[in-house]
Queue: 2 jobs
Job 1
Amino acid sequence: MSDSNSHDPNQMTGAAMIVRAMKDHGVEHIFGYPGGAVLPIYDEIFQQSDVQHILVRHEQGAGHAAEGYARSTGKPGVVLVTSGPGATNMVTPLADALMDSIPLVCITGQVPTHLIGNDAFQECDTVGITRPCTKHNWLVRRIEDLAKVLHEAFYVATSGRPGPVVVDVPKDVQFATGTYHPPRKADVHVSYVPKTKGDPAQIRKAVALLANAKRPVIYSGGGVVNSGPEASRLLRELVEITDFPITSTLMGLGAYPASGKNWLGMLGMHGTYEANMTMHGCDVMLCIGARFDDRITGRTDAFAPNAKKIHIDIDPSSINKNIRVDVPIIGDVATVLEDLLGVFKAEAKKPDIKPWWQQVASWRARNSLAYKKSSDVIMPQYAIQRLYEATRGRDTYITTEVGQHQMWAAQFYGFEQPKRWMTSGGLGTMGYGLPAALGVQVAHRDSLVIDIAGDASVQMTIQEMATAVQYELPIKIFILNNQYMGMVRQWQQLLHGNRLSHSYTEAMPDFVKLAEAYGAVGMQVFKPSDLDGAIQDMIKVNKPVLFDCRVAALENCFPMIPSGKAHNEMLLPAEATDEATAAAFAGGKALV
Amino acid sequence: MTQPASAYFMEERHDPNETHTLSVIVQNEPGVLARVIGLFSGRGYNIESLTVSETEAQKHLSRITIVTTGTPMVIQQIKNQLDRMVPVYRVVDMTLSGRSIERELAMVKLRGVGEHRVESLRLAEAFRARVIDASTESFVFEITGNSSKINQFIELMRPLGLVEVVRTGVAAIGRGAEGM
Ligand SMILES: Cc1cc2nc3c(=O)[nH]c(=O)nc-3n(C[C@H](O)[C@H](O)[C@H](O)COP(=O)(O)OP(=O)(O)OC[C@H]3O[C@@H](n4cnc5c(N)ncnc54)[C@H](O)[C@@H]3O)c2cc1C
Ligand SMILES: Cc1ncc(C[n+]2csc(CCOP(=O)(O)OP(=O)(O)O)c2C)c(N)n1
Ligand SMILES: [Mg+2]
């Protein structure tokens, strides 16, 4: 009687179900940090070897590492943290992943069900706190529900527009025994069935617009990367057969190769002149998996004023949110592009857009990314260019922190493939890049993984150097050290009368000694002539490296669309004199 | 006008607001109402009225009726945001469909003697409000109808000794044979 029960392989504790569900969903690595409310799960992890656990040094690090892992593989990132402070430390990565559409499954421990609501030790309302920063979340009060919820969690995180989910599991449910069942169709959440196939009538309308365009542009975004490798392939084919110019958001870099002849560079606030002018002047805009973010549109009433707009997006709430479009197509990028290409090839011819390309060439000739070269100090742009030259032939992944260095990386590092570029775009989280690099390296042991960092950002999650050393993850932290929170200082110079309030990186640590204290390798360069050699040394070291690259302190990031201006009112580096800047930013006191 | 220098783009929008009634069919699971309300407060949408109750117990379905105001673009955004929530099955814009009946129930308490009492009873009859509690110096009326009828009734009761009002908020259903 009890014998037959104990031999049922699907009878197990809640803690065992969690580990089992991970295996069933193909999870090989999880990032986490233990505590009282997850000890039963840690006990299960200890007794198996299929799922490898990476111990971070702060739960935020686990979250960003899982994001890097997810973005570079296309698989969900999995996180395990304890109740209370463990869960609250995860809030930033969850919000980050929600903004940037990254699939995460986060398991949090919770106090036993009978103590919930009693201000028990390390209790917090995890589902309440994480509700607005997850795609969905669950508190599992009964062992009978656990298997189903775990499978649902993987489904919701990875389907449609991907995003983070939280499963909060009270400790008594982890101890309780119940019946596990493997993933099955019925665990698909019945009320959540995203549409992936585009409406054929809309696709026909889109093709008609494209075929008759005189001044077309393709504006692609993170959704192409989300959709998978097939989407990037189809995007390239579309550019090939239409010969349209193409730009991309920060999140979509690499979907179309930077070396491609139709590439205009990134668009938006710090995008190239040619990308923004092409957007402004186009008559047909094809937006593919991008969300008309305010860094892109500038003034919405002056955004591409003469364009018919086509928008392909899997999330209907992205459509007509900021910009009204003429032909919305709801569906997955790869699926829609396949259908669209089919119709285009069968029924349309590429339009003659020679005059448009001549116009684009004249914008390109402005060379909007030009900067002053120097032989005394390392210009930050130059540092990225040299890093790019030294690593372009290799199997390289780049992550970043947030600030000027992030924008320079986007402008000067050429991405040829999707999923090679991990950056915090929507939330703009300083401290993202180092742990994200860690996550990427866990997934790609033999690849070169570089975090292009800022001196201020990197200090926000620097403790994860210990994780890198522990797991022998040879990540390279390439710090563009300008001794300032450069991006903040730039805004203060432009908007706040040059009053540099608290944007200087005071008491800068000695990064070389810091690296050594962690058991990693520290390097430092000051002179342009030493840079190439140092980069080569950095690449050769098979250990984590903190690379302190001292760059020109006061360099600012251009081009730039000043606030409240349209795409054709960009500020170019050569024009960014004090007077021009003052005029461009004329107005009262800043609000942010 | 020049805007204050800022990292954000500030624009005024002048589209006129509209009022819409939305019916939302949701999985009746813990926290679902908090999710819906959190969406409205988090994204700065208006809630004029909200009612919720389980309507199909065996399928664990509840129906939420929300009356909201916003520009047409915002109303569309509200519907899309609701629709993509995991426990939401369907969102129907009862105002757009143009074929819906809306009802609200209110209980209205009056204190008064003499002429005012007589007048209030006379009006109540005209509005088909029922007396559901009475004392020598008070009445409680129950009235159902669409919101404007109830507003009108309350305004008429005000000078007659209105003490308090409680309203359920709007429930809406489509006309004809079809369900939603
Ligand atoms: C300091 C700083 C400066 C910045 N400056 C710039 C700048 O100059 N230029 C710039 O571009 N960005 C800039 N950003 C980033 C910006 O804030 C946004 O994160 C970014 O522009 C959004 O990119 P996206 O539109 O591609 O959308 P994402 O956030 O990547 O969203 C993807 C869109 O695709 C959809 N989608 C997802 N999966 C699919 C699928 N399978 N099929 C179809 N659709 C799908 C989603 O629903 C969503 O609408 C900056 C960020 C920071 C921190
Ligand atoms: C967690 C967090 N806090 C504050 C900010 C605001 N912020 C944006 S960029 C920046 C400065 C970044 O400095 P650094 O890392 O040195 O990069 P730099 O701009 O100098 O390249 C700050 C404080 C942020 N994005 N994230
Ligand atoms: Mg800096």
Job 2
Amino acid sequence: MTESQGGAPASPASPASPASPVDVAGPPAGPDAPGAAAPRPAPPPAARLSRLGEVPHLGLVAALALLAVVGLVTVPDAFASASNLVGILSLAATIGVITVGATFVIIGGGIDLSVGAVMALASVWATTLATQSYGPLVMIVCAVLVGAGAGLVNGLLIAYGRLVPFIATLAMLVAARGLAQRMSDRRTQLVQQGNQAIVDLSTTRVFGVPVLVYIFAVVVAAGWILLNRTTFGRRTYAVGGNPEAARLAGIDVRRHTMWLYALSGLCCGIAAVLIMARTTTGSSTHGDLYELDAIAAVIIGGTLLTGGRGSIVGSILGLLIFTVITNLFILNGLNTSDQLIAKGLIIVVAVLLQRRSLRSPT
Amino acid sequence: MSAVTPLLQMKGIVKRFPGVRALDGVDLEVLPGEVHCLLGQNGAGKSTLIKVLAGAHRPDEGVVTLGGEEVRPASPIDAIRLGISTIYQELDLVDGLTVAQNVFLGHEPSRLGFVGRSEAGRATRGLLTRLGHGEIRPGTEVGRLSPAAKQVVSMARALSRDTRLIVMDEPSAALAHDEVANLFRIIRELTAQGVAVIYISHRLEEIREIGDRVTVLKDGRTVAVGLPAKTTPTGEIVSLMTGRSVEHVFPPRPDPGSHEDRPEVLRVEDLAVPGVLAGVSFSVRAGEIVGLAGLVGSGRSEIIEAVYGARRFTGNVLLEGRPVGRGGTGRTVRLGMGLAPEERKSQALLLDQSVTRNISLAGLGRYSRLGWLDRRREAADARALVERLDVRPGDPDRPVKTLSGGNQQKVVLARWLLNERRLLLLDEPTRGVDVGARAELYAVIRELADSGIGVLLVSSEVPEVLGLADRVLVIREGTVIHQGDARDLDEHRVLDMIMEGGAL
Ligand SMILES: Nc1ncnc2c1ncn2[C@@H]1O[C@H](COP(=O)(O)OP(=O)(O)OP(=O)(O)O)[C@@H](O)[C@H]1O
Ligand SMILES: [Mg+2]
């Protein structure tokens, strides 16, 4: 296999334009008006009906609505209050940003276990005294670069070092946590007085909603656009759905894979900024088990773990379902162990339901 | 004939998919010990019908009787227990398992719950030898086998069970000439033992040779039952299938030698792949169709893959004078090559994705401005190509996996018609494509060549190479043993050459 870095496969603008590519006017020189006579199966009624079942994420929205009803019934005042809803969103923001990156990686046929650890490392690196001395902007840039850098290392190991994603990112998980502990001496590092601008991201409110929720929203929107409206997104589906076909269609599968992990790392860096804002600290213990929550959200959202299929909106809905459950358990004063059991059940149910809806059209 | 009770009867079978009636009241009757051929255009419902029989789909209406008793196979296992074995059109082997494991998947010979590995291996070797392929080792991982070898394994699997009825959905599509002969020998053995065979193929010569009776499907309905396979005139069969008459399949060729002053699009010098190819040199000129004839495994596909940058090689490959080098497929696509690979399902298609997205895959660059996709133009172009190639159903938003095999092949070709190419590499471009659509594809390929593109064509069907190509290279054991004008050759000469190497 000779495969490597060529530029993006663009259609070659050949000098002497050969076959007019999409030439509708010239029907193939078939003997008879080809196919015109044969009755085509009429799509309308049944097709439209089946489309109804395809309203995207209907099940997820219904589940979320159901949880809201449970909240309204069990703890009406506490649940529906503006501050609680804003709280849910702030809580979801950090993992939410990570989930966007994880969605890309998983649609691209991979997995990233290192997200929580990379976020922790980024938060520690950005809150060292040395970094902090340059001010909040540098802290943010530092966090994002550290995240993207760690992601790039993952990507290189997987795409060019041919490591299995599971192994490479597991190694990164362990190593990044270790490095974070070393850098911070296992101490929690406070965001200093002079760098309050970071913390302001969670305390400053616009229309009653903290800035970090807007950041979350922007990342989601950007992720959605990248996945659905750009060639990068298209290639992501292709690389995850059938890497061999993608390669033979001229897509540089390895390079694309590398960028997917870098993107995931970048999201972890942004998440590190959010967690510093929310907790006012950088710590090697941040983001413990975030990888599981992110992956669970992606799966609940209907993304295939084998790649090639999935959506950002689904992942975010999946995440919100998770966050609302946590919230309901806390508001109702229930045991956190039960909460974990409930989440486990939800993952199973969601996947079972999806399997059915996948099968039905066939 | 009327004295014999039919082994299988299917009556009024209806199967609906969202938006399509794939089967709309199909009848089929198969006698014990006969080879019953099923004919129909792409999308006529042949595969769907046999999937109903095999328990892979449940019919919405209709009755199936086997040996006089009504049966309703609810799952593939049910059907197997009833004595129905199926070789599917799209191979269904597990790549990660060995040949023997695949053959006995689901019915492993076991003792006290332990899989009898040596026994399975021995039985598999026996089956493969019977199929004339003793060289396939039972312990090999299936993923490493060539498509043709996979087909053989799939056949061994069908034979490994006790069956009364074997269904073969386009089994010959992946086979070369001599292997088809082998397949026919086995079919004759089976029918001599009273086993009935349902045989699906788009190649009428095969139907003539092996078939007893023919049932023709069109648009999900039976249009003719039990026609004699040997004597029914071709014209009649084709017009039953297509509803029109297909006059001549191959488009007219330009005069011999008319390409000589055209520029070379592709130049291959001393191409070698260790153990597979040695010293292959040839060129393709603008507007020329060059056909590669040879047995499966002779190195045809490897030549194409090397030229395309999908395989390491030594030697020189130049596209319009520029060396292809080691840039991989990204570079060759950018330079202006396109490949329609041999195995569409695993090498070409994103099955879950829509027709549109599959068509635009290699040409995303043309719709992107700074990475942003112009989806309106993408959709319009895809629609135009779907119409031009008469893909059915003609809905570009449909997931490719819901299309019939031949229509999937058209989608693969459409991908490269979208892009302006300098050189098209076509590996078995008409595999699984019906007679009518074939003529259309041939016309499209010729049209492309006439517009100045070079075409390199691989086909296991010698008549196709001879009828479509301007020049033919005969490949044997990794070397070119003959190059010459297609008009100077006939099928027998080519077959002699590829089998015995009786070159000039
Ligand atoms: N799972 C599915 N979902 C929706 N439509 C389907 C599905 N499978 C088949 N069809 C449709 O049913 C029709 C019959 O398809 P089928 O595969 O039986 O054709 P075929 O006769 O085997 O064609 P070919 O010669 O190309 O293999 C086609 O219109 C096809 O698009
Ligand atoms: Mg079929």
